[in-house]
Each structure stands twice: as C-alpha cells, then as structure tokens.
Amino acid sequence: MDGGTLYSIGELARRTGLTVKTIRFYSDRGIVTPADRTPAGYRRYGPDAVARLALVRTLRELGLGLETVRRVVDRRLALAEVAAEHAAALDVQIRILRLRRAVLTAVAEREPTPEEMERMHQLATLSEAERRHLIDDFLDSVFDGPGPGGPEGVPGFAAARRSMTPELPDSPSDEQVGAWVELAELSLDPDFRASMRRLAEGHAAEPAGDGPVTPRPDVVAVARDVVGAAVASGVDPESPRADSVVATLTARCAPVHGRVDDAEAHRRLLHRLEAASDPRRDRYLQLLALVNGWPAPERLAPLLDWSVAALRGRAPRRPGGHVK
C-alpha cells in the first residue's frame, strides 16, 4: 500500500486491535481525525492514523488522561516530560498501594478489632514529618525532661537516642511497613514509655566515675558479655556453678568511683536489670532493625532473665541474717 491508501474505520480497527466504537470515540474528540469521507459520509483514515492510534493506546494503558494524550499526539507536549511526570505519580500510587497491602497483611496475621485496624492504617499512612513527630515525642518521654535523677543532659544519651530512631525508607517492603506499625504502637504505649523512662533514669542515677570522661557502665552490655557463656551452657542461675559468674557480673557493674561491691550496688544492679528485661524492649529493637534495614539484633531477654534470677537468688543479707 502506498502513502495514498485510506482505511475505513473497520480496517483501522483490524490493524490497531481497537474496537470500532473506541476509534470513533477518539475521532469524535479530535485525537485521530479522518483524512477524508466517502460520498455517503463514511470516514476514511490515512496510514498515519495507525501509528497515532498505537501511541494513543499505549498512553491510555499507562494511565494518561485523555487531554494529556491529545496534547502529546498533537506534539504540543513533550512525551519525555509527560513520561517523567507520570512515572513520579505512579511512584506515589505504588507506595500507597504497598502501604495498604502491608496493613492488610498485618491485619490478616493479627486479627485486630475494627478500631485497631483503623489505627494501624493511620500509622502506616503517616507522612515522614508525622512519623518523625511521633518518634520524637516517644524519645522525649524517655530521655528528656527533669525528674529525680532524670536523664536530662546525661552523656551518651544523645547517641542512645539516635540508635533508637527508626527511619522508614521511601520505598519500604511490606515487612518494613508492618514493623513500623508495630513499633509505632509500642512507642505510643504509656506503660512501655514509663518502662523505658525508668531504665534511662536508672542509668542516669549511677555515679559517673572518677572523671568527666569515664562512662557509666552499661549493665546490659556487661550482662551480655559476662553471662552469655553460662546461659549457652545451660547453667542454672541458682546453682553453685553460677556463683563465679554472678560475682564477676556484680563486680564489673559496681559503681566505679571507689565503692565496694556492697549490698546497695547489688540492689541497684538488680533493679536496673529488671527494668531492662522488659520483653517489649527486645521487641522494639528487633522492629527497629527491620525498619532501618539493620542486621537482626541479639535477643537479650534470655541473658537478662538469667541475670535477674541469679541476683534474686543471692540477695545480700543485712547483719543478723535478714535479706537486704
């Protein structure tokens, strides 16, 4: 066929795979125009209509609106510009759909009430600024503000705060979205906030040591290092085999400003390890690692539970044999 060949609307439909009704619709709106008409008024289209309709079909399948399609095929709008803008819009839609899918997946696993489901959806669809505000409020409640022995201004707390801050990526996986929702729910729990606050205040109340650069001992890290082998070996925390482990633990966690490893140090250590042994703390750190794409952290609950049991079974006694 040469350049002068004209097609009926039926022939054009066969060549493009579009229906006659669809081609007539585009023709009525000026997106593809007939090159001529028969004496009876039937439309005839030139060869360029085939390529034009192929482009129209592709653009419509990509989701572009009719007016945008008209401007592109008429060369009044650059195709590259349209493609870039539409790709950006699709990115937003994809993110929204992934968030919805993640919420539905979490709902299927947790079987929440309708009210809980609504809360999960709200947490999943928070903006970045809203997520930041929620987490800042949680961390403020843990690390900031006055109080008896409170943590305000304690060295090392700025780093601790940063290490507990979730950063949901721009294109999170379903697992990351689900982890964020659960983490956000935890951070809004007043009892969990109070538990974490007590842990921070316990650390703040410890003497800082012999100089401004001497850090407070991190009892959780010490417990992990000292009792790990005993837990792995199945040592009973109340058995005589645990005596030397407990002695090392209490000695290393005792205040470092010259005090001996006395009953008060033992009591304080037990109190801090009890505060740290809240299983929700472990869960928060696991969710945090998933949200931030970090390696999964070691579960500390077994080590802390062992340490607490060992210390309780060896509570120092007052003079006269009474338990301190």
Helix content: 55-70%
How big a fraction of the residues is strand? under 5%
Poorly predicted regions are 147-153, 320-324
Radius of gyration: 34 Å
- Alpha-beta classification: mainly alpha
Order of strands in the sheet with most strands:
1-3-2
Let me know the average pLDDT.
84
Shape: rod-shaped
Largest sheet: 3 strands, antiparallel
- The topology string of helices and strands comes to EHHEEHHHHHHHHHHHHH
Structural domain tally: 2
Got a strand count? Answer: 3
Distance between the termini: 104 Å
Give a quick set of tags describing it.
324 residues; mainly alpha; Multidrug-efflux Transporter Regulator, Chain: A, Domain 2
General description of the model:
The protein is mainly alpha-helical. The chain folds into two domains: 7-77, Orthogonal Bundle (Multidrug-efflux Transporter Regulator, Chain: A, Domain 2); 97-312, no CATH class. 62% of the residues lie in helices and 2% in strands. The protein has helices at residues 9-16, 20-28, 48-61, 66-73, 79-110, 114-124, 128-143, 157-163, 174-187, 190-205, 219-232, 243-253, 263-276, 279-292, 301-312, and strands spanning 7-8, 36-37, 43-45. A three-stranded antiparallel beta sheet has the order 1-3-2. Strand 2 and strand 3 form a beta hairpin. It is rod-shaped.
